[in-house]
Specification:
4 domains, 4 helices, eight-stranded mixed sheet, RNA Polymerase Alpha Subunit, Chain A, domain 2, six-stranded mixed sheet
């Protein structure tokens, strides 16, 4: 038993020694390769980042298609090039030097070896130019926010006030050429049919152009809604509107019931004395007419109807028969009054 344990220990020790030997050989090989690679000179193509320098204050290249990298053929240490390609180790960059350029039309920048900043020797650059560049002025404008919502409030609800965006304008920045006249920022639509109660909703904004940047990505939409109520306002006076110098006019009935619909609290606070129904007589000739009533009302209030919806209007003192009283004419059928027939 003791002999077997000793043999196993000896085998384990030998295995460990062999593993350590292998690791040691690998390390030595890597060190030798590094030593050789650091002194070996090779020519190789690699990609270097392209950076813009010297652009004037409040100027921008936004809207130009600028490559992120440029392929450059370099000659230098094999180790430096391998470390760059495998581990993105910095070995240099290509610079677009625009210190002497201002706003203007599109142009092409010709790359030269002097634009490559590196300790290695530059053999070639591809592509040899950067096309489609345009320098523009950076401008800032406050643009109004526009929103086109969808749907309508469910039955029994109404807005206490129009839906309001806060803020209703945002700061937008970018090249001057991308700002159009009367430009607006569009807010994502909200479906009013899904609104159940008053609330404040965050709404995302869409830039008028992909090259223009918004100072904020969203605004708030304030929605104040309340339950609706229907009510009848009795005995509202009816007044005839007559042009100056026209004959005396009589209206029957002189009072009317007005059916309204609106926000519950506001409707319940209404008083019949605040309303007036009018009948437009104008310059109608003497006669008997059947005319509709009209009523002015605040925008938050809906008029469901009038009872009665039409009124008998007697203009002047026409000679009439019982049949004429029972069948008054409607406005517009004739300019003559009944008494003129």
């Amino acid at each position: 038993m003791g002999v077997q344990v000793g043999v196993r220990l000896a085998d384990g020790t030998a295995s460990m020694n062999r593993l350590e030997l292998k690791i040691g050989c690998l390390v030595v090989s890597i060190l030798i390769w590094i030593q050789v690679a650091s002194h070996a000179t090779v020519e190789q193509s690699t990609k270097l980042p392209l950076k813009v320098v010297g652009l004037g204050e409040e100027l921008t290249l936004e809207g130009s298609v600028i490559p992120e990298e440029v392929e450059v053929r370099l000659e230098g240490s094999k180790l430096s090039l391998v470390m760059h390609n495998l581990f993105q180790r910095y070995i240099g960059e290509v610079r677009l030097n625009l210190w002497d350029r201002g706003p203007g039309p599109e142009f092409t920048y010709e790359l030269s070896r002097d634009d490559v900043y590196t300790d290695l020797r530059v053999v070639d650059i591809h592509p040899a130019d950067v096309r489609g560049l345009r320098i523009d002025r950076m401008v800032y404008h406050m643009l109004p926010v526009r929103q086109q919502n969808t749907g309508t409030l469910r039955a029994g609800l109404a807005f206490l006030e129009p839906a309001t965006l806060k803020p209703d304008s945002v700061l937008v920045s970018g090249p001057s050429r991308f700002f159009r006249e009367h430009a607006t920022v569009v807010a994502d639509p909200v479906d009013f049919s899904k609104i159940k109660e008053s609330q404040r909703l965050p709404v995302k904004l869409q830039s008028p152009n992909r090259h223009l940047k918004l100072a904020t990505s969203q605004v708030s939409l304030d929605l104040r809604v309340a339950a609706l109520e229907e009510r009848t306002l009795p005995n509202v006076p009816v007044v005839a509107l007559v042009d100056a110098g026209r004959p005396q006019v009589g209206v029957s009935p002189p009072l009317v019931d007005v059916m309204v619909r609106g926000v519950r609290d506001s409707v319940l606070a209404l008083d019949s004395r605040r309303f007036l129904v009018t009948v437009s007589v104008g310059s109608l000739a003497e006669g008997i007419y059947q005319l509709p009533g009209q009523i002015d009302h605040p925008p938050w209030l809906d008029i469901v109807g009038l009872d009665p919806p039409e009124f008998q209007v007697i203009v002047g003192h026409p000679s009439v028969s019982l049949d004429s009283l029972l069948r008054p004419r409607a406005q517009g059928k004739t300019d003559r009054g009944i008494g003129d027939e």
